[in-house]
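Treating backbone geometry as a discrete language has practical consequences that deserve illustration. The sequence in question and its structure tokens are set out directly beneath this paragraph.
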Amino acid sequence: MKRLSLALLIVFSLVLAGCSPNTTPTESAAKQPAATESVASPAATGGEKIVIRVWGHQNNSFNQAHQDIINKFMEENPNVEIKFETFPWDVFIQTIQTSLPAGQVADIIEMPGGMGLRYAKGGQLLEVPAEVMTLDRARETYFEAPLGGYVYDGKLYGLPIEFNLEYGGAYVNEEMFKAAGLPYPPQWKGWDEVIADAKKLTKFDSSNAMEVAGLHYTNNDQLYTYFLSGILEQGGQYFAEDGKHFNFNTPQALAVVQKMVDMAQKDKVVDPVTYNAESNWVGTSFAQKLTAIAVLGSWFTGEARITYPDLKFDYVKLPPFMGDQYKFTSVSGWGVVVTKYTQHPEIAWKLAAAMAADPENALHFNLTTGTIPAMKQVANDSRLSEKYPFMKDLVTILPYGVFQGDIVDPSQLEFDIIYPNLIQAIQGIITPEQAVQNIHEEANAMVDNAK
């Protein structure tokens, strides 16, 4: 993740109130949830509109889906004005981290997966009212992994809108497979088959520099997720006994790192120096046909269809990374929360419910964005698999996902600790043993420093 300078961040925080939406309103086809009470009529409020601010990150398909639902909400509630403000990813994360604790924040935030617990513990989020969604009902409604990021101390503090699935799927291009004489779409039974195809898809120029990566897995989200998931798939655990510290100095962790290193150094399906989170990013390089098999979350599907309308691709299921049984982690998933600073909690929760608790709206969001549903009912909806045929197969692994756990600082663990050490090991700068030891020490230091 790119870091903002402190000066820039301070200046930006001073002008947040003047930010305007970066999305274009589009027609909505979603209905209002019946779980919450009606908003007062214009006459009851003296004709003045109630303003609700919503913050989100800049993503074309996400913004379009949210704007659709917001437009419909305002049509059905004419005394309510929704100001939908979006920010670039890095700015958005920094804005949440600085503005939410200070109380200079929107009524509703589209919360990144894994960040909700921090602010629930800090008392900055409102508990979901029982009339909107009880915890028991939420457990029946949503999959375990995305819901876990919004439950703290037995209470519900938000509603997930997608299952952050950075595991279990890859983007493939029919033209590249057929040119290499490979069957399409691939139906891999194990990672040895994935690697075998990747070798045939990898291309080098006359100077032996990589022109096309057969398998790009060296993005930060993927290395982080596959590292944690690979430990679990071998029957290991990454939390220490106290549930706060970590135990990464294990044979299971080392085996995962060794496999990641071997795919680059022995199988040579990717050049980790030129293909990583900072260079030839996996989504962009796939769109440019510089990557043949792109390991990336399904969320890129909707974005790719908008950003690269001429790109032809499929999203296919990958086998378990370590062993023959799926067990993978998730940072939860994007969701909506209501901050304690809202002056209109009833209306804010009604909008939040419209965005995340209504099955038709949830389906509209997942159809528009190409994201994996957090809601069980939507995952089994035939309309989803009709638009995205890959979903029919991919959703079968969702019950095997687990929330990554209550981590002190998930972003620091991923971007500052696990990813830098793993990419250095894959690049051959440090050994797998050094990477595991570094991650173990740095992760536990993060926990101790947060006390």
